[in-house]
Amino acid sequence: KIVNMKSMPLWKHIFAYVTLGLLCGWYFFLMILYPFLLYCIYHGSIIAGVIFATFLIITIIPLGDKPWETFQYCWIWDIWCEYFDFTFDNASLKNMDWSKKHMIFEFPHGIFPMGQFIAASRVKDITPGKKICGIGADIIFNFPIMRHIMTWIGTLPAKRSNITKILNRGDYCAVIPGGIAEMYLMNTETENIYLRKRFNTVKAAIQEGADIIPLFFFGNTRIFTACNPSGNGADVDKSFLSKISRKFRASIVLFYGRHFLPVPYRHPIHMVSAEIISVTQNSFPSNEEVQEVLDRVILSVQQTYANKKPHWETRPLVVS
Question: Which residue from 227, 252, 249, 256 is spatially nearest to 240, judged by alpha carbons?
Answer without folding.
Answer: 252
